Amino acid sequence: MGQNREDWSGLDAMTSDFDSSLADGRTAREAHEEEVAAVQRVESLVPPARFGALMVECRSAQGQEIADMAARSNGLFTQNYLEKAERGELTLDGGLIGQLAGLYEVDAGPVVPLRSELILDLDRQELKVGDTAMSFNSIHVEDVLQGYVSLVYKLRGQQPGSGLVLRDRDLDVLSASLSYNEPELRRKLDAMTSDFDIRLADGRTAREAHEEEVATDQRVEWGLLVKEVIALCIVIALLVARQMWFV
Asked: CB within 8 A of 48, min separation 6: which ones?
């Protein structure tokens, strides 16, 4: 029992002095802020449409209407807001996701994708996350950033022009590669996502660039599929010919 009291006294000291040092040299405050930031970075990757669909599924399983959920929130959320969230029309930060998950009793774990790191290859003029890639026409900063925006929209399944929650690690990569500071990159990216008709360095609008990049990516995917089908047909033809030979 005495040991337990000592443990509790240690916790009391830590909570009363958030600037006390931990074993790794950080203060309790720094450790807390880093953990919160890490959670928010992960939560910001939740695709709105997927989270909205999960909200609808959980609400329906409880036999509740949207008006019931708004009433349950005690004024925190309006019915109109929840309708938009369920349709995936809102860009949600970590705090809102946590509140909505609690309100709807959603297990947000399965909907949070484990995202690979962003790779920017200026020589090949390509941005890549995992197996998903997006090309850009030049190494001009606006073209590179537009390629990044198009890539993120594709990864999250969002409509062009809708708001994006930017990943800190992505901004680190872009900042280091393009020699731009993060506030300036955020300003440019915010302008691109809020106005998809702005002109890029090559004269195209951001919307036209996005559509062309997506179309190019789709052509590449179809080309690979056609090659796989042709290869399969050749294998089948060889197997049939071999069977006929032995007959």
From this structure: 85, 88, 89, 90, 91, 92, 156, 158
Q: CATH 1.10.260.40 region(s) of the chain?
A: 48-111
pTM summary value: 0.41
CA distance 146 to 188: 10
For the ranges 3-12, 44-53, 67-76, the maximum mean pLDDT occurs at: 67-76
pLDDT digits (tens, 9 = 90+) for 201-226: 556 665 666 666 666 666 666 666 77
3-state helix, strand, coil in the chain (%, to 5): 65, 5, 30
Q: Which residues pair with 205 in a beta bridge?
A: 199
Superfamily of domain 48-111: lambda repressor-like DNA-binding domains (1.10.260.40)
